[in-house]
Amino acid sequence: MLMCRDLARIASDYIDDELGxxxxxxxxxxxxxxxxxxxxxxNLRASTALMQAHSSQKLDEEFLRRIEERVADSLNxxxxxxxxxx
Length: 86
What we know:
Elements: H1 4-15, H2 21-33, H3 35-53, H4 61-80
Helix pairs in contact: 1-3, 1-4, 2-3
Organism: Marinobacter panjinensis
Domain Putative zinc-finger: 4-38
Pfam families: zf-HC2
């Protein structure tokens, strides 16, 4: 079964519809059971749409990678009970 930290790592690919059928199904099943990840995906979608709507420049891939890393670290810290991932 997909864990929250796993979902965080592939969330952008899920939103961009770049996952295979099996991975999409795993994500959808996880989202049905996890309100935190549903909220995370919703916020990620909204943030992506907002950035695209208000930016005339292409998004910096390295910047996005760092954001995804920090989100994954935060989710992992939440799952392990450590509230401060730094």
